[in-house]
């Protein structure tokens, strides 16, 4: 399968991952204070996924980064087990991720 990475796709996907990194970092205090999650777990998950977003955003020139970004989306949805609202927000970011890929490819004329 030939997956062509376009400049627009990189920009849109990097924007999604950047905003997602902020949200994932902000679940740390909510998980600890509101939901009573152990601080070590909340920090590990929040910081780990936020860093994963930043790293993936930095390697979006490679087609394999889009697989990694999709894995991050699944993990972001799974953070709903720590902060239930993340089930919803994770799905929103996953939809934005998929939309960024397909809209950019369509606008730039890639089939």
Provide a short characterization of the protein structure:
The protein is mostly helical.
Helix-strand blueprint:
Blueprint: H1 7-33, H2 39-58, H3 64-78, H4 85-107
Helix pairs in contact: 1-2, 1-4, 2-3, 3-4
The residue fraction in helices comes out at: over 70%
Characterize the largest beta sheet: strand count, sense, and whether it forms a barrel. none
Number of helices: 4
Strand content: under 5%
| H/E series | HHHH
**Globular, elongated, flat, extended or rod-shaped: what is the shape?**
elongated
Q: Please, what is the average pLDDT?
A: 93
Which radius of gyration do the C-alpha atoms yield? 15 Å
Contiguous low-pLDDT stretches (5 residues minimum) are none
Number of self-contained structural domains = 1
Structural class: mainly alpha
Tally of extended strands?
A: 0
Organism: Sphaerisporangium flaviroseum
Protein name: DUF4233 domain-containing protein
Keywords: Membrane, Transmembrane, Transmembrane helix
Pfam family, one: DUF4233
Quick tags:
111 residues; mainly alpha; 4 helices; 0% strand
Architecture overview:
The protein has 111 residues and is an all-alpha fold. The protein has one domain. The protein is built from four helices and no strands. α1 packs antiparallel against α2, α2 packs antiparallel against α3 and α3 runs antiparallel to α4. The termini are close together. It comes from Sphaerisporangium flaviroseum. InterPro entries: DUF4233. This is DUF4233 domain-containing protein. Keywords: Membrane, Transmembrane, Transmembrane helix.
């Amino acid at each position: 399968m030939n997956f062509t990475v376009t400049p627009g796709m990189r920009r849109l996907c990097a924007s999604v991952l950047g905003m997602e990194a902020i949200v994932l970092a902000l679940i740390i205090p909510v998980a600890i204070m509101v939901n009573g999650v152990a601080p070590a777990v909340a920090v590990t998950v929040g910081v780990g996924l936020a860093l994963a977003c930043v790293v993936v955003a930095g390697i979006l020139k490679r087609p394999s980064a889009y697989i990694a970004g999709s894995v991050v989306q699944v993990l972001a949805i799974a953070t709903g087990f720590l902060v239930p609202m993340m089930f919803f927000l994770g799905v929103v970011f996953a939809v934005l991720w998929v939309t960024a890929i397909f809209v950019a490819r369509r606008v730039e004329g890639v089939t």
